[in-house]
Amino acid sequence: MATALQTPAPGITDAEREARQQLAACYRVFDMLGWSEMIYNHITLKVPGEDGAFLINPFGLHFSEVTASNLVKIDIDGNKLDASPYPVNLAGFTQHALFHRLLPDAHCIMHTHTTAGMAVSSVEGGLRPTNFYACSFAGQIAYHDFEGVTVRSEEGERLIEHLGDKRVMLLRNHGILVMGRTLPEAFLKHWSLQRACEIQVATASMGTPIEVPDEIVAIHQRDLSKVQIPGGAGAADFAAMVRLVDRTDRSWRD
Fold first, then answer.
1. Can you say whether residue 175 is alpha, beta or left, with left for phi > 0 and alpha for psi between -120 and 50 degrees?
2. Number of structural domains, the chain?
3. What is the CATH number of the domain that holds 90?
4. Distance from first CA to last CA of the chain, Å, rounded?
5. Which domain holds residue 69?
6. What tens digit of pLDDT does each residue of 125-165 get?
7. Is 3 among the domain residues?
């Protein structure tokens, strides 16, 4: 992801330039995978080397329209740090700024309203260990009850309390929330959780699911590290998806 923006803006560091390009690519990957939701939902990324600064999508643009240069740079209080003409969705800022402010390891945060994610978040019991991907998340998912659209800062205390030490949350009746120390790590979490939800929805339509015993889940989670490839969690996965996007549209680099 080292290629520079085609039209670099003055004053942008190399680190910010790379972060912008990585995040823009991620929005296009999400769209390619069918995870867009009109002009809503958010992926945010901290700006390296700048405390309290992060990038978010311009409110009003579809994921397929996001580019490296039109991402909006804001501070932890929602103030714009660039000359972007676009507004920022209050719901995105309220939730994401809270986690970026309080969780040093939440470098990238992703929130979506996918059909499968919303469906599983809306049933009693949430995600169950009934498939390969779901077993990877057993004991690692937090839950937060629906309180309406997330625009009130006072909900933040409950979000943080319910998240605890986990970095994956199903917002009940609402959707998916994942965090990562890097964007590729967060991407892999989201992709895996989405797959787990899709398979659970499909399984539920066929009959009574078979739940995997706790002792097998523990072995499964222990052995997952043996099948990871070098480069960091999700790095190769995300790079492969970006190559697929590039085959049809490279405008996200602008």
1. left
2. 1
3. 3.40.225.10
4. 13
5. 14-247
6. 999 999 999 999 999 999 999 998 887 888 888 999 999 99
7. no
